Amino acid sequence: MPNLSLTPRDVARELARRYSTMTHDELDILESVLVPMKFAKGERILDEGQTCEHIYWIVKGLARQFYFKNGKELTEYMATENTVMMSIESLFMEKPTTQVIQALEPTVIYALPKKELEAVAMRSVNIQILYRKILEESLIISQQRADMLRFESAQDRYQKLVKSCPQLVLRAPLVYIASYLQMTPETLSRVRTAVLLNT
After folding, report:
1. Can you spell out the DSSP letters for 56-77?
2. Cα gap 190→23, rounded to integer Å
3. How many helices (H) and strands (E) does the chain have?
4. If residue 126 lies in a helix (H) or strand (E), which one and from where to where?
5. Would you write out the chain's pLDDT as a tens digit for each of its 199 residues?
6. Strands 83-85 and 35-39
7. Is 26 in a helix, a strand, or coil?
8. Rounded-to-integer distance, Cα 115 and Cα 86, Å
9. 129-132, Cβ contacts within 8 angstroms, sequence gap of 24 or more
């Protein structure tokens, strides 16, 4: 088992605090399904062609979700501590994913296996609520990103990311931030300079 700074109980409590109130017995159940994982910088958490079987809760580190198009890597999502990641289509359709999830720093994760989580959710209303709220949050984030790319200027996109995910902006390589915001690194550099001049 990886040497983790947080115990499974700590993680169960944090998930309950964030998503759903739980009794001690429900915390025991949630704790029992958590799977600790540890990844080195650059290691792939989920690879293209694999089927996503877990919801990943990042305890420590930074991860990126990306896909390939015309031989280029396009960043779909990035996440730091206390954030969920998954390939949602692969998870629910139980088919190989076209996406990759990669650790950009040494990363510690507690995974929630979908099948085990669904089984325990059948016996606990509060775990059902937690499961539903995790999925709701993931869908809302996807919708917000789609709207951001459709309706906002490059400068607005960057400023929104700085405000909502300051750690991401500080820690992620600029090439991945640019890809996530759907702009070239050169455009991102100009936007960052303009933002700094206006603050």
Report:
1. EEEEES-EEEEEEETTEEEEEE
2. 51
3. 9, 8
4. helix 125-151
5. 444 568 999 999 999 999 999 999 999 999 999 999 999 999 999 999 999 999 999 999 999 999 999 999 999 999 999 999 999 999 999 999 999 999 999 999 999 999 999 999 999 999 999 999 999 999 999 999 999 999 999 999 999 999 999 999 999 999 999 999 999 999 999 999 988 887 6
6. unpaired
7. helix
8. 14
9. 129/19, 129/20, 130/15, 130/16, 130/19, 130/20, 130/22, 130/30
Phi, psi of 23 (to 5 degrees): -80, 170
The tally of CA atoms less than 13 A away on the side-chain side of residue 63 is 29
pTM of the model: 0.92
Record the tokens describing residue 78, joined without a space: 């990035």
Give the C-alpha separation, 185 to 190, whole Å: 9
Residue type, 162: V
Structure tokens, 65: 């979700």
Paired residues of 112 in beta bridges: 55
162 neighbors 191 (Cβ within 8 angstroms): no
